[in-house]
Amino acid sequence: MIQRPRRLRSNQGIRKMVQETSLSVNDLIYPIFVKPGDGEKEEIASMEGQFRHTLTTMVEELKEVTALGIPAVLLFGVNNPKHERARTSYDKKGIVQEAIRVIKQKFPDLYVITDVCVCAYTHHGHCGIIQENDVLNDESLKVLAKMALSHAEAGADMVAPSAMMDGQIGAIRRKLDNNGYSHVSTMGYSAKYQSAFYGPFRDAADSAPSFGDRATYQMDIGNSEEAVREIALDIEEGADIVMVKPALSYLDIIYRAANEFEVPVAAYNVSGEFAAIKASAAKGWIDEQKAMLEVLLSIKRAGAKLIITYFAKDIARKLRN
Ligand code: PBG
Predict the structure, then answer these.
(1) Closest ligand 1 atom to Cα of 272
(2) Which of 145, 147, 194, 236 has the most CB atoms around it within 10 Å of its CB?
(3) Distance between CA 218 and CA 36 in Å, rounded?
(4) Which atom of ligand 1 is nearest to the CA of 207?
């Protein structure tokens, strides 16, 4: 036997030297939920260690996040006042807009990304404006663009529309450019599937649709060519970064995206993927730390440059040691 692959696995030194993929703290984006009002932060029952923060507890949390060297957060507003046409989503005094201002004042170097979607701002919980149980595409674009502009005005570095409305990146790009915010970036939730893995997030954000489902806007879980078309459209419309979501059941899509396009690819390690590891670790069925590392490494290996993950603080700690 001339070839013996085990020679390159024989001790830790050589294993480290030939490891092809590694995680860096610079790959991480930490999602964070903020709610209006004072008082205590509330732990999200289905997402151990994740909280609905007030502005005050958010600041405490971000001290830890920045001390760990995590470069970016993805902001979500929860417990928002709701409105039929999601007017509250572009309120200058809305919780996300306030949170951005606080972050930029206290942590000027933390990169602030905001989720742009109306599902947490409407009673019906759909990602767009509804007429007779139909989600109206172009009406929704107007609201998404206003919401994105309000985030840019508050100081967001990047806005990330997750509503899966056609043309959402283009509509937001034009709105930002026409109002003097051409320097604000966009990240498309380009290939976002109609997944069962968003369950815990919808508890956290109280954003589950009150009727029907998201099948008329989120992608069918069997499709791959369509993901490529969606990503291509977002890039044409000006997206700086494209995203595949969820990550784990869609590693093949991440791989294609990374190979077929030139822009950085992000992947969202979503709430259900996080909760599944937490729940089985709590039962003693898997080793949480090892499972987390393996999952995140697989997302990176598939081709994601950036990973949005609720594990960001844990992995950042692990990478330090
Ligand atoms: C809003 C939105 C969702 C997530 C991110 N933005 C939920 C959904 O589409 O229902 C899911 C995030 C997660 O599960 O961690 N549209």
Answers:
(1) 14
(2) 147
(3) 29
(4) 10
